[in-house]
Design goal:
nine-stranded mixed β-sheet, 331 residues, Rossmann fold, single chain, alpha/beta
Length: 331
């Protein structure tokens, strides 16, 4: 069943970096990072905020435009999207060692930048703390502003989804599953959380069996993954299975593999009309449409309180596939 709400703005606008954000890390370093922004190109208006965290498990991916495809999707439907560039540590390996020492287990081998994923939720904190300034900048330059009346949504892909569920209340472990449980206290709890290619315990990214059970039952989470993320111990559906919901707060959406590459869906979370990476298989293109529809209905319901979004999510026939290759679960 398609979600029929039409885009409010088919020609969404995107801007490059506004002045970089900066904050002091828990271990005393100054962290600077860039953001880019997508918003409806309507000339004026106030729109709800989505914060998007890109993937790149090492924490060393500086591309603020890496998530521009999904930013365009959200902006087309009436949202302002702040895309965080989760840059690598400015102090290199020495800063990684400072972080791991702060966490209580001392220096780590060269190149162990995965531990910098600890900082991604703090990057989200910094965006929220700068939300008024960001809105003012947009208002001055483009006559659009952030509508804060309903809060904000948090979205991310791969390691960015790790930041999303950490912010939602999932437990992380440093240095590993043998100890060092960590819960992040958010600056402001998000209205809803979208985790694309949500991480599982076999991804060696400081998540362990049981990590997601600490997310509160009433916290809305949409977990999306694909066949390439389900091989053996890498099965990312475990994260969704561990979440406890209220009957209308946790949603799981699964896509089949769209191409011969075994891990293709992991990176394939692009806009259904993407010219960058169009679907290789027509049937998978249909599933990308479903995924986008589910995402937008989820946002419309939890961030805009629109009845159409709720009706769509409540419909057990949201996803239908006679081959049984698509899964849609709620808890």
């Amino acid at each position: 069943m398609p979600y029929t709400r039409l885009p409010t703005n088919p020609t969404a606008h995107q801007v490059g970096q506004i002045p970089p954000l900066s904050y002091t890390t828990p271990y005393g370093a100054t962290r600077d990072f860039e953001i880019s922004i997508g918003f409806p190109d309507t000339g004026a208006g106030s729109y709800p905020l989505i914060i998007y965290c890109h993937g790149g498990a090492s924490g060393a991916n500086p591309g603020a435009y890496k998530t521009s495809d999904w930013a365009r999707v959200y902006a087309e439907y009436g949202y302002i999207v702040v895309m965080i560039s989760h840059t690598e540590p400015g102090g290199g390996q020495a800063e990684v060692d400072d972080l791991t020492t702060y966490l209580g287990f001392g220096p780590v081998p060269q190149g162990s930048f995965k531990y910098m994923n600890y900082l991604k939720p703090f990057d989200i904190d910094a965006v929220l703390n700068a939300r008024t300034r960001i809105s003012s900048e947009l208002s001055t330059r483009f006559a659009v502003s952030i509508d804060t009346s309903a809060g904000y949504a948090l979205a991310g892909h791969s390691s960015g989804s790790g930041a999303v569920v950490t912010y939602a209340g999932a437990t992380r472990y440093f240095p590993d599953c043998s100890g060092g449980a960590y819960l992040h206290t958010p600056v402001e709890v998000a209205a809803c959380h979208l985790a694309y290619s949500i991480q599982g315990p076999a991804d060696v990214d400081n998540f362990c069996a049981g990590s997601w059970s600490s997310i509160a039952p009433e916290t809305p989470v949409l977990a999306v993954t694909g066949a390439g993320d389900l091989a053996g111990a890498r099965d990312r559906r475990q994260s969704f299975a561990e979440m406890v919901g209220t009957g209308n707060s946790k949603y799981g959406f699964w896509l089949r593999d769209q191409a011969p590459q075994p891990n293709a869906p992991h990176g394939f979370f692009n806009h259904k009309n993407s010219v960058v990476q169009p679907p290789a298989v027509p049937s998978f293109a249909t599933e990308v449409v479903w995924m986008e529809d589910v995402s937008l209905a989820f946002l419309d319901y939890y961030l805009k309180a629109e009845a159409a979004g709720q009706l769509y999510l409540d419909n057990d026939d949201v996803v239908t596939d006679s081959a049984g290759q698509v899964e849609w679960d709620k808890r």
